[in-house]
Amino acid sequence: MMLDGLSPRPGARHRTKRVGRGPGSGHRKTAGRGMKGQGKRSAGRETPFHFEGGQMPLVRRLPKRGFRSLNKTEVQVINIAALAAFGDGATVDISALVGRGLVRARGGPVKLLGEGVSPRNLVVKVPAASEGARRKIEEAGGRMEPCE
Q1: Which of 120, 84, 126, 146 is nearest to 136 (CA)?
Q2: Gap between the Cα atoms of 147 and 36, Å rounded
Q3: Is residue 109 part of a domain?
Q4: Which of 66, 99, 107, 124 has the least C-beta neighbours within 10 A?
């Protein structure tokens, strides 16, 4: 069997409906659009998806609220549980996190949160950390150093 020899099964494909192409087409003159009115016009019938039949649309009924800040910085959050990938006594900084695929290089500032158990003796250099994260790292014998 060759690809160029394939054809659809009989009855699987319908003929194209040729509208407004003379008396023999069965859809002549008004071309299935009826007599006069909006539906007969070229821009008729189709209403926008948000049209609610003349009542006040939902978008206009609800009050305006808030705005989107153009200067918003998205903080990359990482939990202590993810630091288990480093093992005991490791030094964890931004480049190490990027190397392990835990944060993106250009994803914005990184903040360490305290969910999970900290590996022992970690030296962590991140721009920001929660109080709980600092406490857990220091309890496990590690230390937090300022990020350059």
Answers
A1: 120
A2: 75
A3: yes
A4: 66
**Could you tell me the pTM of the whole model?**
0.56
Alpha helices by DSSP H, the chain? 58-61, 94-99, 131-139
DSSP state of 92: E
Tokens of 105: 């290089």
Note the maximum CA span of the chain.
91
Residue 82 belongs to domain spanning:
76-144
Say how many domains are in the chain. Answer: 1
Is residue 61 in a domain?
Answer: no
Instruction: List own/partner pairs for 62-66 with CB under 8 A and 24 or more apart.
Output: none
Is 36 a member of any domain? no
Of all residues in the chain, the percent with pLDDT exceeding 90 is 60
Q: Which CATH number goes with the domain that contains 118?
A: 3.100.10.10
User: What is the tens place of the pLDDT at every residue in 100-146?
Assistant: 999 999 988 999 999 999 888 999 999 999 999 999 999 999 999 98
